[in-house]
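Any chance you could type out some protein's one-letter sequence along with its backbone structure tokens so I can compare the two?
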Amino acid sequence: MYIVLYIVIGIVCLFILLALIAPKKYQVSRSIVINKPLPEVFQYLKHIKNQDNWSPWKKKDPDMKQEFIGNDGDIGFIAKWDGNKDVGLGEQEIMNIVDNDRVEARLRFFKPWKSESDAVTSVKDVGDGNTKVTWGFSGVNKVPVNIFMMLYNVDKHVGKDFEEGLVSLKEILEK
């Protein structure tokens, strides 16, 4: 009886320890330089529907169901999607736009797991008609998800998707 009690106490202590040391926040971003003037790049990026042309997730499920609410490129615009296991179910809402600087959005995922992230696409003039685009997102890992995130490298897995998307974006805008 005491052995079982010690095992249970040990598991609970291990869980608490892992919950304390596991990452509570995550942030992933990637950048690319595009040979186009900043205003032209920003004008394209502020429209969420344009992501269908360069987003790696649209390529993972070209048949996903989509719904749009509001005026694309304006604060409050919402893009909803319902796709296969690779893209899940969720929505993206434009929360803030700083002209020729950044678009801030809230990502809400409902399936395969529920979570929220803050997404930012920003632009910076790097001279000679070139624009640096940085695409990323961040959020909070709640317990017990943060424990599982010790085994899953978000930066590695999502980062490669961001890199793929930015390369597609560059190809589109430099044509």
